[in-house]
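Private note to self, pasted from the team thread so I don't lose it. Backbone tokens:
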């Protein structure tokens, strides 16, 4: 990597640009200069990705058949330890680098055993940058290796070795493995608090995909970490230890995803097989699926344990095999008697939950993000394995097969009704800018990258937002009441809902298979609801709508949640706002400390939560709690929630698609008990939302 630097030219001479102006970044310096290129970003997502990179190295050992146990520990000093019982990173002298292979692996990009298919037949760490990138982005990192009857050790600071690799003791006979402990660099990551639940979700997923491996996670942090949490979601979850091991593998994975949705099948379909690619290398295919009584498709695909969010050739092969096999079964069984309705691939995927995992020796991904598989030969391999296996299964489990086809026929009937609804909507110009909803106050700029759409709860708040906005780039769409719960409805019913139709129309990109990301009319779509129970419900309904019918908006980073303040504090002419209880207390202390230049008195109590109309303290601080957005006048709404210079908005992302799908099913599905359990588990994160 090279970067250009400017030098001041001599007076009167033109600005020069020569070889002296080229900066060459050596070693791991490039990673520290541009960390987002290697881990995606430096937010909480990138922070947790550091752990995933180290764990993936251990999983690659498992794929090679040498690792059975992986342990992850969040330590009290803010570090994380990942330990496995694999072969251990080699420590002998590298013939070209003339130093320990361990140091080479930890400090050189594109160094590792992943390029030698005699060492790893398949792996997720294809580019060899994982653990060296973690090292580069760590304040310090320590690695211990057990092999050859010895324990080797080396420490690094910001990617550089503190000393050479040394032997620190004997390893127990027959015991091998690698132990990595690191602390993320605070100059790169503003928030270094690891979330137990986030890490546990990834380990659970890996345990489902690798049924021979046991993964264990422990949170060893003390109470001191609670006080340093920046938000409620940073607080340790209460669970401090979990072990994941699933002998049933993908079958258990499918059951876990569908645990809140009633299945229409008595038995989960499972198939596993392998075939050779053009070079004669074995490609392994594993799939499990079942149908539930809901209306959404939930298919999750993996290549060498990497979640391929954008699918690829393996997904195409699976869908082709599914459609062809079910069509054949429906035909020979005489289950589709209505000649007017032709079953399509969409019909066969309604209510489908499936996990497809392939192991490919030389996968070709689209970029370092690894979200789409491009190997053309994998399509026919998957199709050739899944098709015959599913056909045999349907013959052996004909009652389940009959229920599947009956559901597909109902899906086809609903699809036809949805088509008619779409046609009617299109005739009314529902999906183009020429027929925007009347309640939408649009912006004047037409460049989507500069435009924002606020979806606002209630006409009152919508009115304030329309008056307070910047009309050039901010559009306002007020919603009346709660929208339809799309988790429990088919598309033709959803399109009949006036509020949802207004959202589709305003965004302008269509819905489901008609969705075109290039037609999205706003670069930011911001959901703005009251900070109460009804507001939380409306926000969840909207998030469900986007997740189920406009998921690319989330995946492309267009969806945000506004963060209006909970409190207004006024002292004289000074008005300040607080977004939670902690910030409220901080502002009160600051105002008291500023009084006549004196410090805050230790014996002065913290203000109580405001009653309606506000609370006035003895020193003249007026504290008011906003009951809803409608209580703010346009100037307040602009200053606190809509001004890009001062507002706080949360970007909605999908960390784990399978867990996100399951969460929406819990919150918005028909089953009551899973929702009750979820609320009881997470209620501790809610802090004084109601007065």
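Design output:
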């Amino acid at each position: 990597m090279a970067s250009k630097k400017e030098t001041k030219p001599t007076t009167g001479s033109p600005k020069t640009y020569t070889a002296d102006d080229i900066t060459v970044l050596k070693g791991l310096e490039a990673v520290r200069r541009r960390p987002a290129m290697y881990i995606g970003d430096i937010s909480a997502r990138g922070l947790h990705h550091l752990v995933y990179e180290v764990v993936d190295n251990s999983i690659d050992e498992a794929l090679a058949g040498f690792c059975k146990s992986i342990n992850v520990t969040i330590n009290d000093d803010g570090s994380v330890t990942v330990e496995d019982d694999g072969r251990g990173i080699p420590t002998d002298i590298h013939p070209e680098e003339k130093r320990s292979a361990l140091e080479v692996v930890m400090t050189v990009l594109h160094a590792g055993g992943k390029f030698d298919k005699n060492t790893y037949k398949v792996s997720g760490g294809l580019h060899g940058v994982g653990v060296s990138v973690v090292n580069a982005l760590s304040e310090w990192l320590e690695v211990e290796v057990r092999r050859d009857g010895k324990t080797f050790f080396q420490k690094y600071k910001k990617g550089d070795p503190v000393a050479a690799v040394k032997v620190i003791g004997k390893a127990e006979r027959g015991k091998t493995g690698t132990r990595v402990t690191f602390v993320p660099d605070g100059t790169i990551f503003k928030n270094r608090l690891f979330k137990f639940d986030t890490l546990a979700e990834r380990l659970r997923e890996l345990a489902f995909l690798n049924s021979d491996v046991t993964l264990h996670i422990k949170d060893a942090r003390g109470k001191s970490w609670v006080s340093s949490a920046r938000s409620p979601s940073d607080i340790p979850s209460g669970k401090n230890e979990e072990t994941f091991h699933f002998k049933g593998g993908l079958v258990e994975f499918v059951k876990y995803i569908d645990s809140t949705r009633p299945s229409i099948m008595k038995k989960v379909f499972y198939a596993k097989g392998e075939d050779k690619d053009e070079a004669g290398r074995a490609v392994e295919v594993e799939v499990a699926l079942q149908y539930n009584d809901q209306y959404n498709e939930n298919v999750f695909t993996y290549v060498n344990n990497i979640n391929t969010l954008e699918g690829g050739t393996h997904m195409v092969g699976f869908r082709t095999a599914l459609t062809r096999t079910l069509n054949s079964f429906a035909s020979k069984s005489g289950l589709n008697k209505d000649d007017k309705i032709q079953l399509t691939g969409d019909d066969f995927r309604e209510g489908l939950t499936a996990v497809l995992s392939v192991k490919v020796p030389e996968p070709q991904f689209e970029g370092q993000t690894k979200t789409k598989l491009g190997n053309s030969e994998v399509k026919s391999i998957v199709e050739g394995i899944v098709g015959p296996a599913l056909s045999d299964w349907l013959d052996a489990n004909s009652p389940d097969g009959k229920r599947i086809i009956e559901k597909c026929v109902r899906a086809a009937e609903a699809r036809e009704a949805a088509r008619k609804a779409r046609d009617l909507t299109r005739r009314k110009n529902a999906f183009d800018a020429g027929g925007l909803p009347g309640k939408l106050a649009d912006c004047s700029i037409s460049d989507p990258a500069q435009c924002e759409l606020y979806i606002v709860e209630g006409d009152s708040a919508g009115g304030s937002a329309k008056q307070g906005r910047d009309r050039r780039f901010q559009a306002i769409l007020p919603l009346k009441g709660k929208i339809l719960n799309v988790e429990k409805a088919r598309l033709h019913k959803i399109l009949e809902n006036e509020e949802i139709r207004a959202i589709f129309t305003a965004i302008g990109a269509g819905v489901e298979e008609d969705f075109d990301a290039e037609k999205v009319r706003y670069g930011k779509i911001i959901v703005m609801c009251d900070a109460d129970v009804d507001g939380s419900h409306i926000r969840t309904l909207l998030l469900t709508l986007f997740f189920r019918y406009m998921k690319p908006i989330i995946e492309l980073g267009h969806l945000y949640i506004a963060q209006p303040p909970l409190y207004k504090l006024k002292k004289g002419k000074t008005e300040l706002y607080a977004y939670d209880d902690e910030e409220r207390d901080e502002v009160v202390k600051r105002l008291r400390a500023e009084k006549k230049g004196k410090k805050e008195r230790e014996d002065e109590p913290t203000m109580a939560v405001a009653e309606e109309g506000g609370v006035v303290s003895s020193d003249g601080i007026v504290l008011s709690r906003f009951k809803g957005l409608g209580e703010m006048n346009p100037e307040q709404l602009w200053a606190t929630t809509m001004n890009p210079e001062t507002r706080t908005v949360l970007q909605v992302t999908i960390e784990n698609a399978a867990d996100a799908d399951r969460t929406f099913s819990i919150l918005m599905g028909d089953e009551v008990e899973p929702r009750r359990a979820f609320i009881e588990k997470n209620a501790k994160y809610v802090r004084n939302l109601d007065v």
